[in-house]
Specification:
elongated; 275 residues; 6-stranded mixed sheet; alpha/beta
Length: 275
């Protein structure tokens, strides 16, 4: 008889963990989400979002909740010690949850095409380029998961999606000529989707507001504005309104510097004509 595999550890972000602590303290004190929301003068949805790890708990609200729930400063300490950066895939898992629910997404990419626009073949090649390499049995599930994320582009009521991509990304030779040609055709088809705005920032542009790297802006159904940044060694959620505003202004500048959606379709047509 084969030994049972140990249970898979729960992959909780710090925000989720703090939210679970709030939920446990609320129930122990005998409050519903609605009753607690009324006491602290916020919407019930705000309490629900914090408990689910979808909204950051602010220091002033944490202090008030500590007082009402008699948690002796536990929530305030948790907020004060939330890490700015968590290692992949913890924050990435939370990002994908938000991505599925988002009403608007704006993505700037300058290294590789966004996963939402990748073909299966391109996605598999990208995953195979990882160092250290994924084990062979990991490639197919990860590729399939990336393809499943693209469901949001084809919903009856899809989110509003804006992409700004640096032109050199289109010239990547990974996967070979056929993979690149298929990917270009796929981008051209995506550019026709009514929910998608696809723009390319020319390599020859004299201005470039995205030199600090890629990022994603996201609006949740309850109109919370968030940002997500992923780097070589980790990923970061940004929920502070001032920081999100800075990135939003950067994205607006990138859109102004990029080719228009119509000009971007023309660029794809020219590249496809060269295949």
């Amino acid at each position: 008889m084969s030994a049972k595999k140990p249970p898979r550890p729960k992959n909780l972000t710090s925000m989720k963990m703090l939210g679970k602590q709030l939920g446990a303290a609320r129930r122990a004190a005998g409050y519903t989400q609605s009753a607690l929301a009324a006491l602290v003068q916020v919407d019930e949805e705000t309490i629900a979002s914090i408990e689910q790890g979808r909204r950051a708990l602010k220091p002033d609200l944490a202090a008030l909740l500590d007082e009402i729930l008699q948690t002796k400063g536990m929530l305030s300490v948790g907020v004060a010690n939330l890490p700015e950066i968590d290692q992949f895939p913890m924050w990435a898992e939370l990002y994908m949850e938000h991505e599925r629910e988002a009403i608007a997404l704006s993505l700037y990419a300058n290294q590789v095409l966004p996963g939402l626009l990748q073909t299966r073949a391109y996605a598999e090649v990208v995953l195979r380029e990882r160092v250290p390499a994924y084990e062979e049995e990991e490639i197919e599930p990860k590729t399939a998961a990336r393809m499943e994320r693209q469901e949001i582009l084809h919903r009856k009521s899809p989110p509003t999606l804006s992409f700004v991509i640096w032109e050199p990304v289109l010239l990547l030779g990974i996967g070979g000529r056929e993979v690149r040609a298929e990917q270009l055709r796929h981008l051209r088809a995506c550019a026709e989707l009514p929910c998608v705005s696809l723009q390319f920032l020319p390599a020859a542009s004299l201005s470039h507001a995205g030199l600090a790297g890629p990022f994603i802006l996201l609006e949740t159904p309850d109109h919370q504005h968030l940002a997500y940044i992923e780097g070589q060694r980790g990923s970061q959620w940004v929920s502070d309104a001032d920081e999100v505003s800075r990135l939003a202004r950067k994205y607006a500048m990138l859109r102004a510097q990029a080719l228009s959606p119509l000009e971007s379709k023309g660029l794809l047509d020219r590249l496809l004509g060269e295949q």
